[in-house]
Amino acid sequence: MTTRTDIRPPQPVCRSLRCTVWLLPALLIGLVDISTAGEPPANKPDKDELNAWREQAVEYARIMSQVKWTPVADGLPIRGKGHFKKGVEYTGVPYSSVKSVGRYIGLEIYLKTFLAAVENPLSVLYTETLAGKVPNAAPYYGKVCSSYTSYALQCGTWFVSRHPGPEYREGVHLVESQSAQTVEIGDVIFTPPVRGGSHVEFVTGIVRNDDGSVTHVIVEESTPPTTRTTKRDAASFDAHISSRNRVLYRITDLDAWRAANRAESFLFPNYEEDSLTPAINRVLLLDRGDWVPYRKDQVVKFNVMDRDALGVKALVLQRGETPLENIELVGKGMVERSFSTCGDYTAHCIMRDGSSSQACEFAVCDLDLKPSVTTVTLGTPWEIEFTSDNMKVIIAYFYCESDEYRHQTVFVTDQDRQNGRVVIPADLLEKTGQWQIWLIGENRYGRLKKRRDIVVKSPAAAVK
Prior knowledge:
single chain; about 475 residues; alpha+beta; Immunoglobulin-like; 3 domains; seven-stranded mixed beta sheet; six-stranded antiparallel beta sheet; 9 helices; 25 strands; globular
C-alpha cells in the first residue's frame, strides 16, 4: 500500500527567454545581461522573506524525495542497470532523463499520476523502457537533478544543470566561504562536468550544537535509482564541497533568479495536488496511471483489475457528461480504445451489485508545430507555427544534439497563441548542427511534448 511521509501541503513566460541554462537545481535560462547578473537587485528581499521561500523550497523538494511507493510488478527499469523489485518499498521518485519521450514527475504529470501507474501492473512503468532509446533514461516517468531542484525552487520548467553561477543568472552568488559553517538551507551545490554530465544537489537541513556551530548538513538530490538524502557531518560536507571542483551557490532573490520561469504562471507544478495523499483506483487504472493527458487517436489501455474481487459487469466511457460506450465485461482484463475527439474523459466500472466504481480521469489532446524553414540560418529570425486542441501551448524548447550547454527556451505569450505562431529571435540558436524543437503544452491533467528536428547552418553554408 502506498504511503506518504514528511509531506505538508504548500502551493503553485515571457517571450523569447534566452535560456542559457543554469541550474541550481538547475540551470540557467533566460535572456540575461551578463554584465549585471549576480548584482544585488534594487529591491532585495529581507531576511524573513528569504527564510520563508527557502523553507518552502525544502517542503517542495521533500514532496518528491520522501514519497514512499512499492512496485506491484517486476520490470520497472532502473537507470544504469537492473529493475526495481516487486513488493519492495522505495523512497523518492525514480531517476530518468525522459527528455521529449517520457514525462517528468511534478513538472509534466502529477505525482499521483506516477503513484497510480505504480499500482497498475500493466502500466507504462512496467511495460515500456526508455533505456537504450533515450540517453540517461530508463523509466517512462522520472526526475533528474535539474527537474528535481527546479521543482523545489518553484520554476515552471526545468533549468539545465550545466551553467551555474552569477554570470548567468541574477539573484544568485557564490558563497564566500565554502564550508559547512556558512551553508544555509536552500543553497545549491553544483558539480561541473568532468568526463560526463554536471550535477546539482539541494541543501535541505542544517544541524547545530548548543554553541551554534554546524555539526551536520542534510543534502537531497535526484540520482539513480531514486532521489537520495545524505546527512554528512561538517568535516565530510567540507570534503564533499572541496572535491570534483564543486561550488556552493546561494539564491538571494528567487524572483530575479527565476525571471519569467515561475511556477505560478502555469498549471504545473501543482504543489497542493502533489502534497496530498491520492485515492488510487483499485478497480480500474489506465496504462499511464490516472489524471493524465493522451494524444488524439492514441490508444488508451484500461486495465480492469478489480483488486478487491467485488465483481465487475461493465466499463463505462464518457466525454464530459456525454456517455460514449457501455462495454460489457465478463471479469478482469484489458480494454483498448482510441479517441478522435479532444476533450476531458472519464472511465468507471459498473460493479456486480450495481454500484459504480471510482472513475479514472484523462484528457485527449492535440498538439503540433511546423517551423517556417527546414534549415535555420544563424543570425536570421524565423517562426514556428503551432496548433493545439484541449491544450494550451506554453513553451518552445530547443535541444542541441551536439552540445548540451546550448539548450534554449522560448515562453509562448497570449499574443503568440492568438497568432498561432511564435517568432524565434535571430540570435537564439548560436551553434550549427542538429537541433530538436520540443513544443510543450499543458492542461489540467498534465503536459505533452511534440518534437520536430531542424538543421542550423552558418550564413556561409546556407548560401552554398
